[in-house]
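Researcher: Next entry in the queue.
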Amino acid sequence: MEQKKEVTIILKKGEGRTIKAGGAWIYDNEIDRVEGDAAPGDIVRVLDFDDYPMGRGFYNPQSKITVRMMTREPDQVVDDALLMRRVQAAWNYRKAVIDTSSCRLIFGEADFLPGLVVDKYEDVLVVESLALGIDRLKPTILRFLWEVLEKDGVKIRAIFERSDAKIRLKEGLPRTKGLLWMTPGDGHDFADGWQMTRCVADDGRKAGAVFAPRLEIVENGVHYIVDVENGQKTGFFLDQKGNRMAMQSLVRRMKAAGETVRVLDCFTHTGSFALNCGLGGADSVLGLDISELAVAQASENAALNGLSDRVTFQEADVLDLLPKLVEQGEKYDVVILDPPAFTKNRDKIKQAMKGYREINIRGMKLTRHEGYFATCSCSHFMDYETFTTVIAQAARAAHVRLRQIEYRTQAADHPILWAGDEASYYLKFYIFQVLEER
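Model: Structure for this entry, 438 residues:
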């Protein structure tokens, strides 16, 4: 990797608290000066106000996050050897901690590749690039990832890009999605001159004409159709894998004890919690989601698993429907709340707390005495303490007692890096038994 003459970023006195705590971001208001001529996306050296070396990272003056650190070692060059070590380490970690048939292979800052996400759905990789510096290295990183997987006998037939998040605009990057690479089945691989183009086969065929973006995966014994082109994020929420299994196991144990199990799954998206409960033996499951596309996909997934007779889905605004169900006196044996993030910035925390409080009150009221209630938040800014406080407030307002069964976070392929505030710890998931006040 060719490097320009290195540019130096000097921090203001008293700034850089995030990276000094182990984080990876330097904000624009923390920088005193830039020594040298750096273009957006270049690697720069970072010094504290007293010339103490902080490491090296990507520079982007167009972004509020002006530097994303790649290394803390002052003499470490960001080259191909470093990138290969990072990719290999990410794969070694996943092999040790999780079923890799479908999983997150690279999780940005938590894998020391800031701004990059790569998900594996069976034999297809889906990549999301959110930062200018890492976007430039994307072809190299993907090639190394392909090579590392190939060495372990893991065949990848296609790489699809879902870099269509709005946050890219803040980095000066266009929103984009489409097929990056695909083997046409004639021995073509990265070594045959792979290029990051939308027309990837050697004979110039449009790859999109032969790639079907709807894939089938299996997780926890449940089959899903994943739409990597039009689904949310990269197509599927892999981070809830363990939490979905926890609910499947809970329902299975309830059935083994001779209980009737009626489940309400709110914000069901493509039906993942609902289907896990169905596979666990629930007598009936109703999944709710405001998206017509999501409900259609969830219904298709139910049919794929032979669960359409017990697992059904309804298009509805959950925030409007839950109060009506409470008024009607509905009660369920299991209620699951998996809402989207109610806030993506600190400025709206109070508003988000109100939203979480209201849906949790309704969810608890819809859970029968001695029934089970699962609730979660995927917002990084709704931290553990705040979320726990909101749940306690909701329980008091609903006049119920909560007996905690389990507290969980995101699946191990979305590792939580203990340092900084780069949002690697974002998912909070509680399972409770709901008891009438006594």
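Model: The two ends are 68 Å apart (CA to CA).
Researcher: Noted, moving on.
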